[in-house]
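Worked example

This section walks through a single chain of length 393. The input is the sequence exactly as stored; nothing has been trimmed or padded.
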Amino acid sequence: MPAPAKVDFARIWPIQAGAATLLLAGALHFTLTPAYAQAAGFSPAQLGMIGSAYYVGFLMGSLLNPLAFRTLGHRRLFAVYALVIAATVAAQPLWPGPAQWFILRAIVGFLAAGMFAALESWLNAVASNANRGRTLSAYSMSNQLALAGGQYLFTLTPVEGGTGFFISAAILAATIVPFSAMRGHPPPPPTERRIRVAALSRASPVAFAGFVTNGMATAPFWVLGPVFARDSGFDQAAVALFMSLPVFGSFAAQWPIARLSDGMDRRLVILPVATLAALAACGVALASGHGPGWPIFTLAVCFGGSAFLINMLASAHMNDRVPHKDLTEAAGASFLAYGAASVIGPLTASAAMAWLGPAGLFWHAGLVLSAFALFTLTRILIREPADAGEGAA
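Given that input, the structure is written out below as tokens.
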């Protein structure tokens, strides 16, 4: 058996650095937004709507960014979007209120969809099927460190002052620096005016179900996780710890799981990962009534070490099966599926919290993850594993 292809770190480090910088700011922004809004007296329903606004924008960006890529190209689109997203985040404490924040968060989501599509389509153009899992894992691991770092930036300034928004905006503007170091030609822009979601989803149903699951189960964590923690009796430092521990769990599990998936049918890895994620989510829900302590923190690590891997595995599975010319379109399609689910996820999760209390956030995630595990099992049973690039799987 030939040795697996090595990851080309010399070519992917600017992509890693650009995404990590974007996510460092994004993690601070995501944790600060609901905490600031809750302190300002926003209702749970308003928090859910503001959380969904980001994903409404993300969904619209996934639909419209193919035109932007053809007009601007990858490099200029990223630079323009970075400057506008920084200005939008800085406007939040200057323009408070649920309706205003809905608009601002939707703009942030729109721009983030284009920036991540530029990064991830270029990343998949550098990767090959023989090293795609590990390439995406290396990218995801640097992202996880940035997400954890963003949680600790949250502790540096008081929530009520709004200074964190300006820190996040400055970091967002700085994302231009690493991305400008990219060498070589970017992947081709989409050739179609509209993303062919149906055709791409038929190529890999499990991957698209994974993107939907990611939006329904993990997007609400970033929107409502701080609310869950505060309502469960956590202080500001414990909120930051709770939000960062799943990231560390994901970081520890990324590389070995990705390396395993590069040598086999990726669905056989996705199934146990999704099953463990469902069990961990239910465990967090059960432990939430006891407040902060080692049981809930341990289960949070397990949740991140499984649920947060689904997107990476689904992306590798899908990109194994699309031609090079469709990589940018495939990235847009994955964000479209994720964005659509992420609009719904915070709303249904907030409804679950209103019905079941804070634990409803994780009961909701456990249900979604269980359904995905069952779907993956049925696909494995009714379809023979397909060679990369061939047929549906």
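What to look for: The two ends are 24 Å apart (CA to CA).
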